[in-house]
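User: Please predict the structure of the protein below. I'd like the answer in structure-token form so I can feed it into my own downstream comparison script.

Assistant: Understood. Taking the following sequence of 334 residues as input:
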Amino acid sequence: MAFLFAWGFSAPGFANDEADADAYAFDDSPRDALLSYPPWFNDPFLDLRADLEAARDAGKGLILYFGQKRCAYCHQLMDVNFGSETDIVEYTKRHFDVTPIDIWGVAEVTDLSGRTLTERDFAVREEAEFTPTLIFYNAQGREVLRLRGYYPPYQFRAALEYVADEHYLEERFRDYLARGDNRMVFDAADLHDQPFFQSPPFNLDRSRVPAERPLAVFFEQGDCHPCDVLHGQSLQDQAIAEGFASLDNVQLDLWAPTPLITPAGVRTTARDWASDLGLFYAPAVIFFDEQGREILRVDSVVGFYRLGNVLDYVTSKAYRQEPSYQRWRLRQMR
């Protein structure tokens, strides 16, 4: 039976968020204990062509898991989604093989095109800076979905079903999630305010005249528990609040027809822009540089530690010298 009907499926950010509440409020600082993979993960032979062939022969898809041994979000994925949620474990094992990649590893991996490179370089190439990152491939080796960061059990179940039942052939994951909701009622008054949010009209164009500061765009929605957590916890931290106050900041309703001009100078609406950006999780925060180019985005569960590091990268304008957030983090850890 499909999760869509078995689990009371609905759009992200509400409905089942109460059941997943603990997933949004955990300590996200690095763990002392090293993470271990479930025994049903593939052995890391690091030949992805062989892994894909084995998965195809078994009638399954392939998931590449990019993680870190001390990453709190990776531990959360293993302890909750692949730990206490037995239905997720059984569904994943039935429909997918999972191959782990250590984003700091120096072992060689052969990718699906036959190119050999280190795990670290492979992770950088795949922009897997926010762990866990999971890339889903179909039997033909085509990437059909990518999850960047940790998603609680509810959204994770939907992602598994979306790929296993090949809904990607007909619609995007964002639309699949939205289709599962039978209310789609959002009230802009439900959005949290912050003193650093700019007021409309939203002319974010930086393509003609560069701005003085980077820009953070908050995509949110009403009746959104993870949005409550972001504003009630992370943004209450003085250092994080001061970091955002040093940027230009705009808050948009993910589903609203609010008119705006994007940083690239395109006239659109908040709803259509969010769709073009492929957003399906709220809250999502996308950072743009002074010329309107995207620096990076945070579009999954985020806590103090990760958000603080992202702000350090943006407010210090380290992206000017090092466009790879992952490589920049590596230098900070040395």
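That's the full token string. The chain is about 30% helix and 20% strand.
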